[in-house]
């Protein structure tokens, strides 16, 4: 039975996550037993290198792959960051389409072949495992793509990935594309990465595997083939097709939902998760101690510091004063309060006035260190008024890119979860908030996103 290698690129698709959030996602992916965890190119030498070295300290099952960019300096940085990693890999990602080569690398085909040879050779000298990733391969000239892949293999690449970056090929078209490429290149481990533009990435990936691909790139947060769905296909159809993978199927649903909460996505599939006995046994109330909550958090698969446990317990007490807390509620509490940047601003209190014959108004009190700050504003609805009051307090305005509200649990006493995405300096900063009061959840989500902006500006 052929073992299909599953790579996860969630961390590459969610660069705006906090340091702690990325650490926790890597920990969960390693626990799930994905074959490779991909990390984007090093931009901030200090913080990104620290991130990779921190992840390396606990990732034992999965291979850790770091992109080296387009020059020798990037190779040096990736190699240095991966120095103490158990299973390191340097990833050479280069565009293959004529437009991509000229726009991104400012090179023609002959110069691109030389760049591939130089980067792969340099990476191989510093790391045993080297992956060559042919970006936008489906729009490349066939002869050039074949030469590029063979050049990478000859220079020392252990594996090759071809990407349908536009996601425009139908599954059967991409399967034929894979067959054709495999026929014309040297023998090596061959993987695929397909953008989910038309919702067919998972279908195209499974057909590519049937056509000879050895691995597939997936993500929890969308964009490419769904990790949960693809692993489920291998589980359900593997015996018939002769495929298997290393994913721990019984943990997939739970871990995917945990990662989805961290990335603020709603991409976890609608299929019911396989819940453990520990999860089903979680029933907490306001009388439970911090030790009991810590045990429950650990049973969900989280490994939190004492500081994060304290934050979780503080929010737990707030929620438990109004309703009993089960696994879903506790999951949401962890995602919204732990794994976050140090809070510059904290919510003290809020008063909202709203009705169909009055203008909505909000009065908020926030703390910043030892200082208490107050803002009062009217707005087009209670949420708008609350957000304006926050902006009045901090003296800045941010573009609201996205705002969502959804329920975490069912019933009249259900807990609501709010998502806020703020845009600043061309980057998106997401925040989540939970409460039995949707206005409270919305305010907490905005403050959570705000704290990420302030933290990044200060560091």
Structure, described:
The protein has 17 helices and 17 strands. Helix 9 (201-210) packs parallel to helix 10 (227-241). It is globular. The chain folds into three domains: 2-262, Alpha-Beta Barrel (TIM Barrel); 277-337; 345-458, Alpha-isopropylmalate synthase LeuA, regulatory domain (Double Stranded RNA Binding Domain, 2-Layer Sandwich), CATH 3.30.160. The N and C termini lie far apart (50 Å). The chain is α/β, with parallel strands linked by helices and 459 residues long.
Largest sheet: 8 strands, parallel, barrel
Mean pLDDT: 90
Please, how many helices?
Answer: 17
Please give the order of strands in the largest beta sheet: 2-3-4-5-6-7-8-9
Number of domains: 3
Q: Gyration radius, to the nearest Å?
A: 24 Å
CATH superfamily caption of the largest domain: Aldolase class I
Write out key terms for the chains shown.
459 residues; globular; 46% helix; Double Stranded RNA Binding Domain; TIM Barrel; three-stranded antiparallel beta sheet
Please describe the topology of this protein.
Layout: E1 2-3, E2 5-8, H1 10-13, H2 19-32, E3 36-39, H3 45-58, E4 63-67, H4 72-81, E5 88-95, H5 98-105, H6 109-126, E6 130-135, H7 142-155, E7 159-164, H8 171-184, E8 189-194, H9 201-210, E9 215-219, E10 225-226, H10 227-241, E11 243-244, H11 249-262, H12 277-280, H13 290-299, H14 306-320, H15 327-337, E12 345-353, E13 360-368, E14 371-379, H16 382-394, E15 399-407, E16 416-424, E17 427-435, H17 438-458
Parallel strand pairs: 1-11, 2-3, 2-9, 3-4, 4-5, 5-6, 6-7, 7-8, 8-9, 9-10
Antiparallel strand pairs: 12-13, 13-14, 15-16, 16-17
Helix pairs in contact: 2-3, 2-11, 3-4, 4-6, 6-7, 8-9, 9-10, 10-11, 13-14, 14-15, 16-17
């Amino acid at each position: 039975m052929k073992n299909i290698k599953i790579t996860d690129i969630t961390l590459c698709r969610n660069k705006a996550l906090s340091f702690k959030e990325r650490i926790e996602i890597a920990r969960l992916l390693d626990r799930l037993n994905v074959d490779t965890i991909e990390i984007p190119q090093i931009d901030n030498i200090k913080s990104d290198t620290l991130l990779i070295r921190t992840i390396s300290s606990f990732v034992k099952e999965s291979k850790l792959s770091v992109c080296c960019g387009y020059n020798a300096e990037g190779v040096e940085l990736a190699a240095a960051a991966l120095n103490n990693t158990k299973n390191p890999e340097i990833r050479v990602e280069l565009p293959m389409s004529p437009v991509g080569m000229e726009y991104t690398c400012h090179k023609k085909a002959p110069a691109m072949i030389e760049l591939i040879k130089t980067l792969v050779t340099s990476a191989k000298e510093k790391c045993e495992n080297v992956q060559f990733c042919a970006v936008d391969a489906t729009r490349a000239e066939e002869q050039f793509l074949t030469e590029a892949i063979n050049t990478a293999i000859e220079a020392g690449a252990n594996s090759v990935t071809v990407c349908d970056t536009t996601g425009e090929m139908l599954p059967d078209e991409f399967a034929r594309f894979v067959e054709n490429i495999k026929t014309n290149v040297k023998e090596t481990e061959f993987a695929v990465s397909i953008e989910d533009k038309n919702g067919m990435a998972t279908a195209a990936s499974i057909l590519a595997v049937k056509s000879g691909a050895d691995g597939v790139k997936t993500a929890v947060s969308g964009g490419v083939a769904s990790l949960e769905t693809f692993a489920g296909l291998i589980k359900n159809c593997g015996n018939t097709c002769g495929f298997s993978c290393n994913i721990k199927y019984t943990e997939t649903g739970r871990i995917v939902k945990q990662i989805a909460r961290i990335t603020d996505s709603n991409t976890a599939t609608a299929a019911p998760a396989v819940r453990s006995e520990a999860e089903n046994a979680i029933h907490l109330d306001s009388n439970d101690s911090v030790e009991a909550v810590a045990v429950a958090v650990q049973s969900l698969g989280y490994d939190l510091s004492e500081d994060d446990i304290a934050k979780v317990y503080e929010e737990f007490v707030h929620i438990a004063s109004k309703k009993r807390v089960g696994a879903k509620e506790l999951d949401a509490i962890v995602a919204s309060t732990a794994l976050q940047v140090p809070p510059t601003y904290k919510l003290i209190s809020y008063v909202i006035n709203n009705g169909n014959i009055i203008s909505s108004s909000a009065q908020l009190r926030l703390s910043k260190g030892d200082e208490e700050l107050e803002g009062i504003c009217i707005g087009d609805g209670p949420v708008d008024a609350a957000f304006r009051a926050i902006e009045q307090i901090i003296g800045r305005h941010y573009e609201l890119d996205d705002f969502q509200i959804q329920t975490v649990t069912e019933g009249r006493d259900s807990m609501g979860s709010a998502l806020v995405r703020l845009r600043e300096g061309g980057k998106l900063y997401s925040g989540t908030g939970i409460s039995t009061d949707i206005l409270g959840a919305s305010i907490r989500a905005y403050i959570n996103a705000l704290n990420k902006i302030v933290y990044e500006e200060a560091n």
